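hey team, just a heads up i'm posting the complex here instead of the shared drive bc the drive is being weird again. everything in one block, sequence lines first with there labels, then the predicted structure for the whole assembly after. its two chains so it's a bit long, scroll down
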Amino acid sequence: MLDLPIPGNVLGMGLLLLGLMTGLVDIKWLEEAAELLLSNMALFFVPAGVGVMVYGDLIAAEWLPISVATILSTFVVMAVTGKLAQKLETPEQDNVD
Amino acid sequence: MWTDLVATPLFGVTLTLVVYLLAQHLYRRVKNVWANPVLVSIVTIILLLKGSGIEYHDYARGGDILLFLLGPTVVALAVPLYQRRKVVWQHKRPIILAIFAGSLASILSACGLAWILGGSREVILSLAPKSVTTPIAISIVEKIGGMAPLTAAIVVLTGCLGAVCGPEFCRLIGVTSPVATGLAVGTAAHGIGTARMFEVDRLAGAVAGLAIGLNGLMTTFLLPILMAFTNF
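-- predicted structure starts here --
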């Protein structure tokens, strides 16, 4: 409908958070349902992953960029996020160890 | 009769549920992060489908029903975010800036490495939201034109990697505070990493859980901007 680059579900998350913050939505209404969905979230990942079998040929052809990018980038993100967070958290304690 | 059953959505739903429950059981027994139930279920179902000659198309009739539930699950992420609003507010500066940097680093390093190694446009786009939790990553990838199932597999692998190596890697590079470690693993390895952080430290786990939602939001906004900038 609206041509926003934001997925509908992310928009929904933002709107719900806004509703909770402003008190328009009471957390009691949906706490249980949200807990049920979030604690079983891993199950919903499965069909998405099975779909990869359709792309077997493409993955075989591009296994190198896919695997190198996935592995190295995971460590890059942890290093950047962790180092920066620690620096910002304790700016004046740099020399204390 | 067998072929009739395969043609109903019930087949995909039942197969997924049974395999997933067994995989969860296995995970509890072996207590090895690499025996991640999602990873084990995906591999098992693919092998079963290939082995029996059942088309993916037939499985997807049921699989799509479960996949649909990812949508409301993303909306539900607002609840833990709201519940932890006090911790967030206390650490708002490191949280927002570090997750933003992590989100940017994830997109640039994943796409950059794939590009250098000669990955196709479709593969590069599918890698872009690799550190974001699957439901959000899939929505993002459908918007920008990658392959959702490839993204799902990459996201699950990223999660396992971060969960297995995250806390140890952080210690190795000198990141020791619970908030910083939680942010690092949560931003890089979303829900699977968060589960591991809860085993290590409760505050680290709470902060990691927060990083799931925030990283999802930031990547959602950052990616279209970066794509417009680089003309990709």
